[in-house]
Amino acid sequence: MDMTPHTMRNTSTNHQTDTGRTAGRQSHLPAAIVVEDLTVAYNSSPALWDIDLEVPSGVLMAIVGPNGAGKTTLIKAALNLVPRSAGTVLFHGKPYAKMRRIVGYVPQRGSVDWDFPTTVLDVVMMGRYGSLGWVRRPGRRERELAMAALHQVSMTDFADSQIGQLSGGQQQRTFLARALVQDAQIYFMDEPFAAVDAVTERAIVKVLQELRDGGKTVVVVHHDLSTVTSYFDWVTLLSVEVRASGPTKEVFTRENLDKTYNGRMDSLYIGEATESPSPERPLSHHTRTAWESA
Ligand SMILES: Nc1ncnc2c1ncn2[C@@H]1O[C@H](COP(=O)(O)OP(=O)(O)OP(=O)(O)O)[C@@H](O)[C@H]1O
Ligand SMILES: [Mg+2]
């Protein structure tokens, strides 16, 4: 992957600063997502504190941080699903209300009511409603697009199944297909790899990388530190505040992970037992969490 435009910018780990403002492969375009001074509080305790973030167009970005770090809240606040105490979020320079159609969202699986009586194909076609308008009902074209998206995630055999009867990984793939038919420019996916097997995970990563290679911006909440460097070219480390954000190669370091996980990185097994990782060196795919190495 060509990282030239990234490496030409400053070497600070936090790319939301001045020179980062024009970040991205397509630096002539406004950034895909700009978050400024965003604070969100539930019952007066802040889940996000003064977030400044700039995501360039055409990156595949991981949001990484511990449980309760505010990852889901960040996505929900960007999509006006939870109220903000302060701050703004712009998509290609405009607020979400004006950019609804170009922003796709795959929610965290546990947050969806799967007992709702509807088929997989219907769920996927719902992704097209935004471009149908009020009058038209979904027709043959919508059906074809939905079937093509189901094919992309290897779910065509389940088109007529009730969503409540799917396994967790199949539900996840259904929601990915729904986002794909929307043909958005910017995608938010909250833990798309939760509950999927290794083969499916690789298939989904391929779909996400193809979206990125097609110029889309894809933001993924991700928990598996061992795959961050191989899957993502951009990363934001979050723990109520942004701890670091920028190209994975520069930002995904032991030092920044320590800041993000508040010293609880001691519970992580990193590389060879004899290896002493340099704080500035990006962690390799050998990184394993404690329970994986157990
Ligand atoms: N609807 C809500 N009402 C009150 N508090 C909430 C609500 N939603 C989230 N929170 C709190 O806000 C904080 C951030 O939650 P959030 O779901 O954004 O975390 P997360 O980083 O997505 O965590 P996880 O990795 O477990 O999905 C947590 O402390 C959580 O308990
Ligand atoms: Mg979450």
Structure description:
It is a single chain. 30% of the residues lie in helices and 21% in strands. The two termini are 34 Å apart. The model is unreliable at 1-28, 269-282 and 284-294 (pLDDT under 50). With 294 residues, it is of the alpha/beta class. It has a single domain, classed as 3-Layer(aba) Sandwich (Rossmann fold). Magnesium ion (MG) is lined by residues 71-72, 108, 190. Adenosine-5'-triphosphate (ATP) is lined by residues 42-43, 47, 65, 67-73, 108.
Topology, please?
Layout lengths: L3 H4 L25 E10 L2 E11 L4 E5 L6 H8 L7 E6 L4 H4 L3 E4 L13 H7 L2 H4 L7 H13 L15 H14 L4 E5 L7 H16 L3 E5 L6 H4 L2 E6 L1 E7 H4 L2 H7 L7 E2 L18 E2 H4 L1
Parallel strand pairs: 3-7, 3-8, 5-6, 6-7
Antiparallel strand pairs: 1-2, 1-4, 8-9, 10-11
Helix pairs in contact: 4-7, 6-7
Q: Radius of gyration over alpha carbons?
A: 19 Å
Ligand list: adenosine-5'-triphosphate, magnesium ion
* Biggest sheet record: 6 strands, mixed
The number of domains is 1
Report, as a whole number of angstroms, the end-to-end distance. 34 Å
Supply the number of helical segments. 12
Mean pLDDT: 80
H-E string = HEEEHEHEHHHHEHEHEEHHEEH
Oligomer: single chain
CATH superfamily, by name, is P-loop containing nucleotide triphosphate hydrolases
List the defining traits of the structure above:
single chain; 294 residues; alpha/beta; Rossmann fold; 6-stranded mixed beta sheet; 3-stranded antiparallel beta sheet; 30% helix; 21% strand; disordered N terminus; disordered C terminus; binds adenosine-5'-triphosphate; binds magnesium ion
